[in-house]
Design a protein that fits this description.
By secondary structure, the protein is an alpha+beta fold. The protein is built from 11 helices and 10 strands. The longest helix is centred in the middle third of the chain and has 40 residues.
């Protein structure tokens, strides 16, 4: 029996170079300050930033093989991009288009032009896609079949992330998986007010909408399940980047804010809180990297790695954002400071693609660990 290789949690030189390039782009575009300004604009995402990130840098096609028009990279590289996007709370549809939508299409028959065409368009950043399932849908949980029909689809899907601003929707229906152009007759995408203003949600209503079949029901279910698992695993990296920014920014602020003639960060109580948060973030980095490596290598323990990462990283991101807001004192409570964006993104991510409790339940089943009786 061959012993599987241990997970590689370290960043490669290529991944470090990619991180530097993405961070430089986001810094040049204003970082969290730009995200704060973008939250006040009436548009789903920053098109100029998305064009630079997706097309200019080629990150939209990282998960797509070169023969299909992508970069031929792995989940490890996509995880690095998501870390940096979490660090800057950038308003771009990377998770929804370059991860969820792309992985769904890769689960279909890519030899068919109906699949290869949209996949290539998403890979080069020319179009934006979204998987039309409610954002809280967890891996292993079948999305509700609220859409029916074949060439003409009818039904409604609520809380779809990335639908506002998308060009194409990948719609699971009772008869299979379909591609629907958002500009086609019978398609209505209604934005709803989200908690996280940097990741818009929408209600999708279909009334006899023209659709292209991508996969029959059995294959469609497998494609959506794989996309949800990949999305949940890589979401942990976004949560990691968010937590790292909150920790670093809080350490910087408490080191420069003085009370009673000394930095507030020198008070023992705050030192203990920040040290405990640092330990949480280090643990989150290990679990997030493990999930990304498992997805990249096709590890048989991928489902376990993803469940562990999501059970831990979601709560760490929220705790880091809460500490960041609180330890910034009065300024942290203002709209002008970006701390509230991080808390809102962290809370939104905590329920996206399954809550931590849902992932703990999945983990218990995967490792055959029975829960308490009675």
């Amino acid at each position: 029996m061959t012993t599987p290789a241990p997970p590689d949690l370290l960043y490669s030189e290529t991944e470090d170079d990619l991180r530097a390039a993405v961070r430089s782009l986001l810094t040049d575009r204003g970082g969290p300050t730009a995200a704060l300004a973008e939250a006040e604009r009436d548009r789903p995402y920053d098109p100029d930033l998305w064009r630079s990130l997706a097309t200019g840098m080629g990150t939209a096609g990282l998960l797509v093989p070169e023969r299909l028009g992508g970069q031929g990279a792995t989940a490890r590289e996509a995880a690095v991009v998501l870390e940096e996007l979490g660090r800057s709370v950038a308003a771009v549809p990377y998770l929804t288009s370059a991860v969820l939508a792309v992985r769904t299409l890769l689960g279909c028959d890519t030899a068919r032009p109906e699949v290869a065409g949209p996949l290539a368009a998403l890979a080069d950043g020319g179009r934006v896609g979204a998987l039309a399932v409610p954002l809280p849908t967890a891996p292993g949980g079948a999305p509700p079949e609220t859409v029916h029909g074949g060439a003409g689809l009818s039904g409604e899907i609520t809380s779809v992330a990335g639908a506002a601003g998308a060009d194409v929707l990948l719609v699971p229906a009772d008869s299979g998986l379909y591609a629907v152009d958002t500009t086609a007759p019978g398609v209505t995408v209604t934005p709803v007010t989200p908690l996280d203003l940097t990741r818009p949600l929408a209600r999708v209503t279909l009334t006899g909408a023209t659709a292209t079949l991508l996969a029959e029901p059995d294959r469609a279910r497998g494609a959506v399940a794989d996309a949800l698992l990949t999305g949940a695993g890589l979401l942990a990296s976004e949560q990691l980047g968010l937590a790292e920014w909150c920790l670093a920014e809080t350490v910087r602020y408490t080191g420069g804010r003085h009370q009673f003639g000394r930095p507030v960060g020198s008070f023992q109580a705050l030192k203990h809180r920040l040290a405990a948060l640092w330990l949480d973030v280090v643990s989150a980095r290990a679990t997030a990297r493990n999930a990304a490596d498992a997805l990249a290598t096709g590890s048989p323990d991928t489902a376990v790695a993803v469940a562990v990462a999501q059970a831990h990283c979601g709560e760490v991101a929220v705790r880091a954002a809460q500490e960041c807001l609180q330890l910034h004192g009065g300024i942290g409570m203002t709209w002008e400071h970006p701390a509230h964006l991080y808390l809102k993104r962290a809370k939104s991510d905590q329920i996206a693609l399954g809550t931590p409790g849902r992932h703990r339940e999945a983990l218990a089943r995967l490792v055959d660990l029975p829960g308490p009786v009675g």
